[in-house]
């Protein structure tokens, strides 16, 4: 059963997602980042290059020829269809407002939630969907570290 972690209270959802991607990369782990909103996914892609002056987070879009050899893959399509998937140890970072398609093929799903009302509301709906599907849910408060 897929474990789902919600990190609530992020001052900036995309910045927190960049920090998460960096941690996964530094741990030598594969991460698929899903978002059906191309504008948000592009903003995340750009932010990964600039969120920290000294950070290097190798990442590509799923359609890139190097995607199967790159630790962080960004996709707006079915995450299970990302190059190199399925990968038993891969985690899925969801930046969408809805649950990603076929997320249950991943060991773990990460959800980052900002303090914005709309973001919190869509996160509550995702929480209920994951819970109804019987997944193990875990909550983390990012505001405590701020």
Automatic annotation (TrEMBL):
<dbReference type="Pfam" id="PF04364">
    <property type="entry name" value="DNA_pol3_chi"/>
</dbReference>
<dbReference type="GO" id="GO:0003887">
    <property type="term" value="F:DNA-directed DNA polymerase activity"/>
</dbReference>
<dbReference type="GO" id="GO:0032298">
    <property type="term" value="P:positive regulation of DNA-templated DNA replication initiation"/>
</dbReference>
<dbReference type="InterPro" id="IPR007459">
    <property type="entry name" value="DNA_pol3_chi"/>
</dbReference>
<protein>
    <submittedName>
        <fullName>DNA polymerase III subunit chi</fullName>
    </submittedName>
</protein>
<dbReference type="GO" id="GO:0006260">
    <property type="term" value="P:DNA replication"/>
</dbReference>
<dbReference type="InterPro" id="IPR036768">
    <property type="entry name" value="PolIII_chi_sf"/>
</dbReference>
<dbReference type="GO" id="GO:0003677">
    <property type="term" value="F:DNA binding"/>
</dbReference>
């Amino acid at each position: 059963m897929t474990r789902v972690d919600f990190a609530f209270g992020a001052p900036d959802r995309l910045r927190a997602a960049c920090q998460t991607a960096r941690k996964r990369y530094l741990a030598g782990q594969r991460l698929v980042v899903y978002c059906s909103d191309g504008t948000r996914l592009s903003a995340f892609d750009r932010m990964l290059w600039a969120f920290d002056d000294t950070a290097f987070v190798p990442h590509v879009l799923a359609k890139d020829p190097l995607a199967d050899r790159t630790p962080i893959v960004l996709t707006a399509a079915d995450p299970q269809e990302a190059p190199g998937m399925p990968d038993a140890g891969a985690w899925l970072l969801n930046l969408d407002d809805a649950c990603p398609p076929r997320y249950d093929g991943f060991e773990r799903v990460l959800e980052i939630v900002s303090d914005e009302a709309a973001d919190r509301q869509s996160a509550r709906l995702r929480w209920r969907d994951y819970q109804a599907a019987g997944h193990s849910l875990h909550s983390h408060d990012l505001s405590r570290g701020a």
